[in-house]
């Protein structure tokens, strides 16, 4: 039981402080987190704000990510695909484990609502090496 509590605590710490929060020009605000009926999975919602010209490098998640652009203009690059440019009101689905990056290509702040459907026992974000 202590190992489970420790693992959940470490994952919560990683997600709430996360790589996003430590990168200059990126602000991550965790909005909600809930276990799903599917054993071992949870949903996490976060608002991600990027300053102009800021990018988040190639990374993946242990589950699907659904993105809704709140404001600004993003360029998303999914590994092996052509870049996709999205503006406020547009959406993107990123499959589980798919490496991708995001960049604010506008002149003002760019914000997205990221919804993750992920495994509880894995780190939320893994940068590509």
Automatic annotation (TrEMBL):
Location of the Cupin type-2 domain: 48-111
Pfam families for the chain: Cupin_2
Signal peptide: 1-21
Swiss-Prot/TrEMBL keywords: Signal
Keyword Cell inner membrane annotated: no
CDD domains: cupin_BLL4011-like (cd02235)
Highest taxon of source: Bacteria
Keyword Mitochondrion: no
Protein name (Swiss-Prot/TrEMBL): Cupin domain-containing protein
Lineage: Bacteria, Pseudomonadati, Bacteroidota, Sphingobacteriia, Sphingobacteriales
């Amino acid at each position: 039981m202590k190992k489970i509590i420790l693992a959940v605590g470490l994952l919560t710490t990683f997600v709430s402080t996360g790589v996003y929060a430590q990168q200059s020009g990126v602000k991550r605000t965790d909005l909600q987190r809930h276990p799903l009926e599917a054993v071992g999975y949870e949903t996490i919602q976060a608002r991600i704000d990027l300053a102009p010209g800021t990018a988040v490098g190639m990374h993946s998640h242990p589950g699907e990510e659904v993105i809704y652009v709140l404001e600004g203009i993003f360029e998303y690059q999914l590994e092996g695909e052509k870049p996709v440019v999205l503006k406020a009101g547009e959406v993107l689905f990123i499959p589980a484990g798919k490496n991708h990056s995001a960049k604010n290509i506008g002149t003002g702040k760019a914000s997205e609502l990221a919804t993750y459907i992920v495994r509880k026992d894995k780190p939320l974000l893994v940068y590509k090496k």
